[in-house]
């Protein structure tokens, strides 16, 4: 057997690569994360005979499979000679725990291939109408997980033009405080928050470090979301 670790993109079938579709259409089994609204359309691309296994992986969802269980599943399927399309949200290169799955397959003598996808870190700014970089005000960017704000080294963001935070839905207060006091970012620094970029529940809010929290109704569910901080957000 063989596993293809495939980036399913930020959402929707329009944002997967041609190679991802070709592999999906030729697989024996699809092992997929919670891909939101794109689930049904993507899974319909797999052969009718292909087994579909939903392993969850939506943050905080008690129904999500543990990573060791997913690793063992992939090994088990390979041992049966199956060609597996392992659909992972965004790109396998960004916060996908790909290393654990790679290590498990390699340790058991099975082959795999990494298939790039579009990361929400790259897609969200474009959906909000601005480029992630700019020759004058956005010469560099830093991408960070906001799943655990206490682990972020905010002073390291001081000289960075554009800061991108993934999995930031529950961390807005900590992010704004950390960037203002730890990274020395001015309160007038532009901010864009993009929920469900390219998905059915896409929404975009704009503001500054001082105002962004007040501009979002507390009743709004923000996950999954990307927060971009920097001058490019005002372009």
UniProtKB/TrEMBL annotation:
It comes from the Eukaryota. Residues 2-212 form the Tetrapyrrole methylase domain. GO terms for biological process: methylation; siroheme biosynthetic process. It is an enzyme of class 2 (transferase). GO terms for molecular function: uroporphyrin-III C-methyltransferase activity. Pfam families: TP_methylase. Its EC number is 2.1.1.107. Keywords: Methyltransferase, Porphyrin biosynthesis, S-adenosyl-L-methionine, Transferase. This is uroporphyrinogen-III C-methyltransferase. It comes from Micromonas commoda (strain RCC299 / NOUM17 / CCMP2709) (Picoplanktonic green alga).
